[in-house]
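Long-time lurker, first post. I've been practising inverse folding by hand and with some scripts of my own, and I keep getting stuck on stretches where the structure tokens seem ambiguous. Below is the full token string for one chain I'm working on. Before anyone asks, I'm not after the true native sequence, just a reasonable design that respects the backbone. If someone could post their per-position residues I'd love to compare against what I wrote down in my notebook.
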């Protein structure tokens, strides 16, 4: 099937302005690397997500689901398929009692702000994580002792056959930065959080404290994909990397941040290859010097480390 035909079909499903061809993933990832996606589609309703998935399945076209792209590294050679971005076009948030229901593309920051406004506690840890709630559930994102598994009551998903399923609590099989969403290749459409009534001033104080610690410790003014490695049991990845003398270590345009060694930052012209080479170098060096094998937390599209 030719690209023009696929493009026309997708526009007829999603509408003008919701599909683009040959899109640089630099614009759509927080680390600002990667080649072009053959197509990028941004559905603005759950019905359109279902329709586009059905179309891609019928035509045997590859697809990849992304949110805000804050944990992703696309190859420099690009992505030969359809990137479906579930972001700001699918970001409605509703609040009833102790529950907040958000479409998957709602930002964690926006959902946390609603929790604060509504005097609901439990989501303070997430207010500074720059992803969508769909991406956060998939990754079981967490910080400062909290993680999504503590607050997710239910999600509405589409499975690989196009059926809508509802997952509750333990059915998500949450683990450290992983969930059933990843292993079963589910697409999250909507997330319901169950929070607890709390004191607004306390909630705000905790959010401000966590965000202050982020600003102080993390290189938030540089493009990155957050912490590159998972926390190895009994250690902190950043500390191990620093102790191995890798602070500021640079390959091409990618650098081990000198503010927080767990982050790799893009100095301006990094390629994904630079980032991956640096990840491999850090991993090898840390393993040789300490015996600890660091596992990447970032999602590397089309390849393993
Ligand atoms: C400065 C900075 C700080 C960060 N701090 C933290 C932190 O404290 N804690 C932490 O855990 N992470 C942190 N991260 C990483 C990242 O923000 C989180 O992993 C976040 O949850 C990813 O959300 P996203 O929408 O950007 O997802 P993406 O990066 O777009 O995707 C991540 C994964 O989620 C999947 N996904 C996305 N949306 C959906 C969906 N609707 N349905 C199914 N799968 C989906 C993708 O396929 C991919 O596997 C940080 C990143 C940066 C840049």
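-- Answer (accepted) --
I ran through it position by position. Result:
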């Amino acid at each position: 099937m030719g690209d023009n035909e696929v493009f026309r079909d997708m526009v007829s499903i999603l509408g003008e302005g919701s599909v683009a061809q040959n899109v640089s993933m630099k614009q759509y990832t927080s680390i600002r690397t990667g080649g072009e996606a053959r197509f990028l589609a941004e559905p603005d309703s759950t019905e359109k997500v279902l329709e586009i998935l059905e179309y891609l399945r019928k035509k045997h076209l590859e697809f990849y689901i992304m949110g805000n792209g804050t944990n992703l590294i696309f190859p420099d050679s690009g992505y030969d398929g359809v990137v479906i971005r579930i972001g700001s076009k699918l970001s409605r948030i509703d609040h009833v009692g102790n529950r907040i229901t958000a479409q998957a593309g709602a930002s964690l920051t926006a959902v946390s702000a609603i929790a604060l406004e509504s005097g609901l506690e439990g989501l303070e840890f997430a207010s500074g994580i720059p992803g969508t709630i769909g991406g956060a559930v998939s990754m079981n994102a967490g910080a400062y002792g909290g993680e999504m598994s503590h607050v997710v009551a239910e999600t509405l998903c589409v499975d690989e056959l196009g059926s809508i399923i509802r997952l509750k609590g333990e059915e998500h099989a949450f683990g450290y930065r992983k969930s059933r969403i990843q292993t079963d290749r589910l697409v999250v459409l909507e997330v319901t959080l169950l929070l607890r009534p709390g004191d607004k001033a306390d909630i705000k104080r905790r959010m401000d404290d966590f965000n202050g610690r982020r600003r102080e410790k993390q290189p938030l003014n540089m493009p990155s994909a957050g912490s590159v490695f998972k926390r190895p049991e009994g250690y902190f990845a950043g500390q191990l990397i620093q102790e191995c003398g890798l602070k500021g270590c640079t390959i091409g345009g990618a650098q081990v941040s000198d503010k927080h060694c767990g982050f790799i930052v893009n100095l301006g012209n990094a390629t994904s290859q630079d980032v991956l080479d640096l990840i491999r170098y850090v991993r090898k060096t840390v393993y040789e010097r300490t015996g600890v094998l660091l596992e990447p937390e970032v999602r590397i599209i089309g390849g393993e480390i």
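A couple of notes from the structure itself: The radius of gyration is 20 Å. The chain has three domains: 3-85, 89-202, 219-300. Happy to go over any region you disagree with.
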